[in-house]
Amino acid sequence: MRLGSGSVLKVTLGSRAARWHAWRASVALAVGVLSLGLVSFMALLPAEGVEEESAPEETVALPAPIDVEKDEPPEPSPEPPPPPTGSGVDCSVVACVALTFDDGPSAHTGALLDRLEELGVKATFFDTGANARARPDTVRRQVEDGHLVGGHSWNHADMRKQTPATACSDASRTADAIREASGLDASLLRPPYGSWNTGILRACRGKTFVLWDVDTMDWSTHDVTKITDHAVNDSKPGSIILMHDTVAETIDALPAVVSGLRQKGYELVTVADLFNTPLAPGQAIYSGPRTGVPSP
Ligand code: NI
Question: For 288, which of 26, 176, 179, 238 could close a Cys bridge (C-beta 3.0–4.6 Å)?
Fold first, then answer.
């Protein structure tokens, strides 16, 4: 296409007009953009202001931080199983002995608990599972009175005549019966007849076997004087004294046993309290440390 000078002028004029329009359009656009930006900016300001105002309200209104803190950690670590009584006596300094009663709970155990309460003595019971199941209220009282309770097999079986698996299954059932009755996690176990071996001890994971070093022979003699003499005369610092809450004469002997041991300067504590540290599972003990010195 050919263009004449008029056309050139028109084009020139047209270009000027176009540039004018373009300039106006640019200005208008710029003003528009600026206005929009300003409006947006203004719109943002109050929005932030609202947030800032409402934020503290939310913080104040929500007691949430406390709830959140409660929920986040896996609950305050579960309470340890009801602890041994915690006599407050340091048996590494003062001579202590532990009275232990096996084979119950029986018809005599209530009277024994009354007498222990009168004498202010904490003891250790080794209940069979069958008897714990039969007298759950007595098991509960043993624990509520501050005594320590362990298991003594389900039905007084000789563990060495059982397979380790059966012996430990009996031990678990017994611990279940004690827990259901009292809430106590019974980690102590006294093997009936003192009959055990390391294979059984290893198989019954988590259990501490508690034997004895003083046998009052109450189960054999049923004689108050002989029971008392054995308990008082055979004891040394740290002794674990074997008695039975199935024997009526043992309950009769108790006041003389307690006063005789106290006259010798012994503190009477639970088996666990003979030790300064928690009893580790997987061990068998016959006595506490021999370190305490009898009180004058
Ligand atoms: Ni027994």
Answer: 238
